[in-house]
Task: structure prediction
Amino acid sequence: MVFLRFLHLFTFVFWYGTLLYFTFIQAPVLFKTLPRDLFGLVQSKLFPPFYIISYICGTVLIVSYHFLNPNKPNNPQDCVKITALYLMLLLSLAQGMWIGPKTAQLRLDRIAAEDSKDTAKIEALKGEFGKAHGISSLINLLVILSGLVYLIYYTLKPPAAPTLMQKIFG
Result:
């Protein structure tokens, strides 16, 4: 059980740290320092491993949580924690399997339109890319907020078990 608790906490810290670093440090620094095309290329190479980290860590967290808390489905704190973990994983899956590939394809389509000098298509693709990127950013923010909720509830003192008198007299 000690190893499982360590694995659970380590996995959360690794995943959450990766999310925060990627979102608030790596992406903004690269965006400010690299030309747009090179930034897009670098991000397109970084996103697949980023999503794989999310899928693996989310799965490990949910499985280890259930092993560590087999008999706590009725505790509100535990319901919030497991819901936050499921949200993190499901939103990451949506981001990596739906909106991420769509955004990547729009980026490639825009590059092709720029090469062909089709200004109408460029403008349309810019709008579509902006919308897809906005959805992706929102999903990423929701993953981060779900992780924050998990972290807050993880650090809270668990509720005391009801005493015999509380069980009898409710």
In short: The chain has five helices and no strands. Helices lie at 2-33, 36-68, 76-116, 119-155, 164-169. The CA atoms of residues 40 and 108 lie 9 Å apart.
